[in-house]
């Protein structure tokens, strides 16, 4: 732990360093196999690091995960859906940036927790809708009411701009739209790769990305790569529904910890 503290300038307890060094695996798996599950990593990193620093540290990790996902699945991207979502996502990103300019570490923690709880609630509503016959993967996929495109595009931009926490929001959108697995992952990957690159200058301006945060990022590269490679392996070998259910339960518990 002494090396980690001297290298990064952060004095963290052992449990926090364990999260920092291994959380990247969750990012890699989320980007290449279980879209939306990275919200658990967002919550855990906000517990391990100062809230604002956690947002800055996560961004390069997410971009690296995006690179693995785009590189593997780019041929399956639904460009039409991607281009219709982007204008509204840009507006949401701007709103998230403005919020970040006016909150402290302690204020940001419950905001992140509240966003997570909201997304989990919306996800459960979507499951009920799906169970009633709406949005069956592969059947007429991509047919979404324009209002939902505006709503989810804006909410996705807001969530990713404010707390790197839009994965479940956009997963919900692609679920409602009935995307098959590979177009789902590929289109989501391009969406977040674009948004995350746009966030870099914004986060630099806010001081969320710094020399210190980038030193922490150097420690996370191996776990992101391992997680992405593991995601390639598990995507066709495990029930995504069961895996998502476990992650959502853990995210719910962690979100409550942040809020209260």
TrEMBL record:
Single GO cellular component term: plasma membrane
Location in or out of the cell: Cell membrane
Residues annotated as signal peptide: none
Pfam families, sorted: TauE
UniProt keyword annotation of Nucleus present: no
Keyword Secreted listed: no
Entries under PANTHER family matching the protein: MEMBRANE TRANSPORTER PROTEIN YDHB-RELATED, TRANSMEMBRANE PROTEIN YFCA
Residue intervals passing through the bilayer: 12-33, 39-70, 82-99, 182-204, 216-236
Entry keywords, A to Z: Cell membrane, Membrane, Transmembrane, Transmembrane helix, Transport
Protein name: Uncharacterized protein
Membrane topology qualifier: Multi-pass membrane protein
């Amino acid at each position: 732990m002494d090396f980690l503290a001297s290298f990064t300038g952060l004095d963290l307890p052992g449990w926090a360093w364990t999260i920092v060094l291994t959380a990247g695996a969750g990012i890699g798996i989320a980007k290449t196999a279980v879209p939306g599950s990275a919200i658990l990593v967002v919550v855990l990193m906000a517990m391990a690091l100062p809230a604002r620093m956690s947002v800055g540290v996560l961004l390069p990790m997410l971009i690296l995960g995006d690179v693995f996902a785009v590189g593997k699945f780019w041929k399956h991207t639904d460009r039409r859906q991607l281009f219709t979502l982007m204008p509204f996502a840009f507006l949401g990103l701007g709103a998230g940036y403005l919020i970040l300019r006016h909150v402290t570490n302690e204020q940001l923690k419950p905001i992140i927790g509240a966003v997570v709880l909201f997304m989990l609630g919306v996800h459960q509503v979507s499951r009920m809708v799906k169970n009633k016959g709406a949005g069956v993967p592969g059947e007429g996929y991509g047919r979404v009411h324009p209002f939902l495109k505006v709503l989810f595009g804006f909410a996705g931009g807001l969530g990713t701009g404010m707390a790197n926490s839009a994965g479940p929001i956009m997963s919900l959108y692609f679920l409602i739209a009935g995307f098959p697995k590979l177009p789902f992952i590929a289109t989501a990957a391009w969406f977040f790769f674009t948004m995350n690159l746009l966030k870099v200058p914004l986060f630099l301006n806010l001081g969320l990305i710094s020399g210190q945060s980038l030193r922490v990022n150097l420690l996370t590269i191996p776990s992101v790569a391992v997680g992405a490679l593991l995601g390639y392996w598990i995507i066709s070998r495990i029930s995504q529904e069961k895996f998502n259910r476990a992650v959502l339960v853990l995210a719910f518990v962690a979100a409550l910890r942040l809020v209260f």
